[in-house]
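Repro case for the chain-ordering regression, as requested:
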Amino acid sequence: MLINAGAQVGIFCLLVFFVTIPLGRYIKRVFTAEPTFLDPICRPVERLVYRICGINPATEMDWPQYAIAMLMFSMAGMLLLYALERAQEFLPLNPQSLGAVGPSLAFNTAASFTTNTNWQAYGGETTMSYLTQMAGLAYHNFVSAAAGIGVAIAIIRGFVRRSSRTLGNFWFDLTRAILWILLPISIVLALALVWQGVPQNFEPYVHAKTVEGAEQIIAEGPVASQEAIKQLGTNGGGFFNANSAHPYENPTPLANLLEMLAIFAIAAALTHTFGLMAGDVRQGWALFAAMALLFIIGATAAIWAEQQGNPMLTAIGVDQSASASQAGGNFEGKEVRFGIVDSALWASVTTDASCGAVNSMHDSYTPLGGLVPMVNMQIGEIIFGGVGSGLYGMLVMAVLAVFIAGLMVGRTPEYLGKKIESREMKLAMFYVLIFPAAILLPAAVAIASKPGLAGISNPGPHGFSQVLYAFTEGAANNGSAFAGLNANTAFYNIATALSMLFGRFMMKIPALAMAGSLAGKRIVPQSAGTFPTNGAIFVVLLVGVILIVAALTFFPADALGPIVEHLAMISGKLY
Amino acid sequence: MSDRKAPVLWDRDIVGRALVDSFRKLDPRVQLRNPVMFVVEVTALAVTIILLRDSFAARGALVKFELQIALWLWFTVLFANFAEAMAEGRGKAQADNLRKTRTETYAKLVGADGSISSVAATSLRRGDVVMVEAGDIIPGDGEVIEGVAAVNEAAITGESAPVIRESGGDRSAVTGGTTVISDYIKVKITANPGETFLDRMIGLVEGAQRQKTPNEIALSILLSGLTVIFLLVCVTLYPYALYGGTILSLPVIVALLVCLIPTTIGGLLSAIGIAGMDRLVQHNVLAMSGRAVEAAGDVDTLLLDKTGTITLGNRMATEFIAVAGVAVEELAEAAQLASLADETPEGRSITVLAKREFNLRGRDLAQHNARFIAFSAQTRMSGVDIDDRMIRKGASEQVLEFARSNGGAPPPELAGIVEGIAKSGGTPLAVADRGRVLGVVHLKDVVKDGIRERFERLRAMGLRTVMITGDNPLTAAAIAREAGVDDFRAEATPETKLRLIREEQAQGKLVAMIGDGTNDAPALAQADVGVAMNAGTQAAREAGNMIDLDSNPTKIMEVVEIGKQLLITRGALTTFSIANDVAKYFAIIPAMFVLGYPELQALNVMHLSTPQSAILSAVIFNALIIIALIPLALRGVAYRPLGAAAILTRNLLIYGLGGVVIPFIGIKAIDMIVAALHLA
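-- result from build under test --
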C-alpha cells in the first residue's frame, strides 16, 4: 500500500519536474519572441491574426491599459457565450436537438467558463449542443487559459523590469499563448487520449442493448479535443456530467496520469519561466519548491484519510485494510480503474491547480479526505494553481511573506530587488481580502436564507460543507463539484457566478496594478544584507505564511464543516 | 563619545505620566490614527453597552463574564496607549533635560556702527550679529564671523571637553545654549527664536512633530487589511453557527475578533517608532525625520572620509630601517634626538616609537649644547645640532643633498628602501648625521584600532564601504587594504563625493555619508542618509538629515545599526502577533460551539477548564502580552551583525515559532489562575 502510493506520487512528481524545465524554457522563448521550432507554422498565423484584428504587437501597454484590454476581451467573450447558449436550438451541430439553456444557468455557465472556473451546474451531454461545447465552451477553455498565462507573463515583466511604465501587450501575449503553447500541446495530448480510447466524432448518441437487455444511450462526440484543453488550461469542465470519472473522458490509468500531468504542466513550467526571466532560476525553483511541498502534504493527507476508510465500518468488523484482493479504505464514489491512490491524488491535483476536473466524487470522501481539496482551494489556488493565476497568486503571497518576515533582517522588504512599499502592500491586501470575501460572505447569505438552504441535500455540518465548498471552488475558479448541492437554482447560479467573477477579475486587477507599480521601480542590487528569496529558508517561510493566512481565514468555517464532521465520525455520528 | 543616558525603563515619573496619558488617549480621535486599536475600542464600547443592558436584566452569571470581557478589552486599549505614552514620556524626559539649558539669556547685540547693546536673546532675529565673550552663553544658533573661542557644548552633547569654534573653515557653526569659555567671538545669528537647533531637537525627541514613516505606513496597511479579514471571518461566523444551532453572543464574537486582529503589533507600532528616534538621541545623534532613521537601515553603501574616520589623521612613525653598517638603535637614537624639540605629531611619534622599541629615553636638550633646527618649506628638513653632531631628518632628496654637502656618499640601498615605503603608502623620512646617512623612518597613516573589525561587521550586514581620500592612488590603496574597506577613491575632490553618490544611487543603492565642511553640503544633501557633524559648518548641518552631536565620524555605523534594529523590531513583533493567533483559535473555537457541536471539544488541546474561562483567558493573554512586550518595543530587538539569512533564521525561530508556542503556555497558565479564582 505504502509502496503503491509512494511510487504513484513519486513518479508523478518526477514527471512534473522533468516537464517544468523544457516547457518553462520554451514559454520564456515564446514571450520574449526568441526563435522556437514552431515559428515556421505559428508566425504566419500570428501575423494574419494581427493584420485581421489591426493589432500592433509592439505597442507596450501600462497596467491599466493591459487590464482594460483583458477585461473587455473577457466580457465580450462572456456575452457571446451567453448568447450562444440561449440560441443553441436554432443553430447547427445540435443532433440531439437540445433546447435553449435557461437564463440563470446560461449566465452562470458563461461566467464559469470565462473565469476559467468551469463549474458546471448542468450535465453536459443533456444540456449543451456540440456547437455550444466547441465554439462556446472549448473556445473559452483556450482563451481564458491564454488570458491567465498572458496576465502572469505581464506580471512577471512587472517584477523583473526596471524603471518601466509598461507590462507588455495583451494581444501579443494572448495570441502567442494560444498559438505556441495551448494549441500545439492540446493537439498532441488529444491524439494521445484518442490512442487511449477517448472518442472524437460528431455522431449522434449510440443506443445499445445491455447484457440484461435494457436500453442504454451512450453519449459521445468531440471529446478528446475538449479533454486535452480542459486539463491543460486547468479548466476542468467535462464533456460529460461524470467528468473525468467517465470512461470516455479518462479511460485508462495511463490516460489518468497524462491528464494529471497536463493539469500541472504549464503552471509548474511558469515558475521556471519566472526564474529565467528574473535572471536567477533559483527564484523560480523556490516558488516551485513551495508549491511542491504544499502539494505533497495535501496529497499525502488525502490518500491517508481515504485509505483509512470509515472507523465506524471498522468498528462493526468490516476489513478496510488494503490487500492483494481489495483496495481497502473508503471506496465510495471512486472508480475501480483508478483506486484510492489515483483518486485521492487526482483530487489533490485538481484542487491545487484550480482545474476542477474530477475522477471521483469528493462529496463521498471521508471528512478529512474532503477537507484536503477544500483547503487546497482555500489556500488560494497557488499550489501550482491555475495556468497563470497560480503563479501570480504565489507571487502576491511571496510579496506578503517578504513583507511580514522580511523586516526581520533589518531592511525595507524587497523582492527581486524591488522595494515593497505601501502601494504594493495596499494592493496585496486587496488581493488577499477579495478572496475570503468572495467565499465567506455569499456562504453566509446562503446558509441563512431560504433559497440557499433549499439546495442543501444532507443535514448537519455536511450540508454546510456543501455550501462552503460551492463558494470556495467558485471564488478559487476551480469548478470542481463537491456534488450533493443542488446548485442549478437561480440563487446558486447567480451567487456562484458572482463569486467566480470576483475571484477572477477583482484579483487579477490588483495583481496587475502591483506589477505595474513594481515595474516602475529601480532594482536594488543584492548584498549580504538582502533577504534571500531563492533559498530553503524562504521556501519554509513562504509555506508557513501561506498556511497561516489560509488557516486563520478559514479555520472557523472549516471547523463547522469538515472538521466537526470528522470529529463526529470518530465519535460515531455520520451525516 | 559620551552616550546620553537612557532613562531607567520603569522610571517612576515617566510611568506616572504615561498612566495618565493612557486614559487621555482613549479619545476616539486619537485612536482613529491606529485602525487596529480603534476597532478594539469600538468593540469594547459595544460590549460595555451589552453589559449594561444585561445588568439591568440582572443576569448574574452572564454579567460576571461580560464584565470581565469588557474590562479586559478596555485594558487592551489602555495597555497600547500606555506603551505609546511610555515611549513619548522617555522622549519628553530627554527634552526636559535639554530645556533646562534654555534659560533666559541676554545678548550683546553689535550695531551697524559697531556699538554694543544688551538685548534679550529672544528678540534676536536672523542676520543679527552678537558679541559673545568668555563666560557668556551663546544666545542663538549662528556662524562665527570673527574670532576664535573655546566653547563648552555639554548642554547639547553631554561632552564637557571644550571644542574650538573659529571664523571661516569648517568649525564655524555655534549652537544656542552653549557657553564660550575663553576668548571672544562675533556670531551672526542664523535662526529666529523658536526655530533654533535646540528647539527643533526638543520638538523631535518629544515626538511632537512625529509623522508616520513610509515603512510604518505600509505595515499599518497590512495590519488594517488583516483586521478587515478577521472582521469578515467573525461576522460570517454568526450565520454559520446559527445553521448549526448555536446563537453566538456579541461579547463572544468580539472576544474572538480582538484576539485575532493584530493588537500586539498594532498596539506597539508607534512606541517602536518613537523609541527608535529615542535610541538615536541616546547615541547623541539627532534625526531630522523618522524617514531618515528607516533609510539608515536600508543603506547599501557607506562613504567614509579617510582622515579622522578610518585613520587617526596623522602620520605616525612605525618602523626604523637602518642602512647597511648602521645599527637600528643608532638610527632610532638619532631620529629621537632630532625629534625631541619637534612638537608635530610626526615628531612626537618618532620619540614615542624609539622609546617603545629600544627603550630610549628622551634627554633634556638644555644640558647639551643643542640647537634645534625647525622645519621649513625651503629646506624640507628639521633636526638638531647637538655637541658636534648635526642630525637632520626630512625628505630623502634633501637629506641626501645635506649628506653630500657634508662630504658623505649616499648608501646604495637607500633608494630601494625609500621606494618600498612610498609604494606601501607610507612616507619615508631619511635621517643623516653630517655626511653619514643612517637610514629611514617609516611614517604611516595609522588605521584606527578596531576599524577593520567594524568594517567586517558592516560587510556581514551587507554594506559596502568606500573610502574617500585626497591621497595618491598608491597610498590610498595601501590604507584601503589595511583598513579592509571594499573600495576607495583616491585624489578625490569635493565633487568626487557627489558624483560617487549619484553613481551609486543610479544603481538603485542607498548611500550614507558623514561630512562636516561646507563643500560636503551638496553631497550630504544628495545622500540618502547624510550625517552632519555638529562641529561642522552651518551649511553642512542644514544639508544633512541627521546631526551627530559628538562629531564622531564613525557614528554612522551605529546609526545604521539603529535603523536596522528599528525595522527588525517591527518585523519581529508583527510575526509574533500573527503567529499568536493559532493558539487563540484552539482556545476560543471549541469554547464557542460547546453546545452546538460538543465534538469540537477535541480541539481544546489545552484542556481549558470551562468555555467561559477559555475565552476570557485568551482575551487576558492578548492584553497582557502588550504589557509584556513594552520593554522589547522600547529597547528594540537585540541586533547582531550577521548576514540576512542568519538573522532571519534566528528571528523566525524566536518570534515565529515562539509566537506559535508561547500563547499555548500563556493561555493555559491564565486559565488555571482564572479557574482557581473562580472568575469564570
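Ordering looks correct now. The mean pLDDT of chain A is 90.
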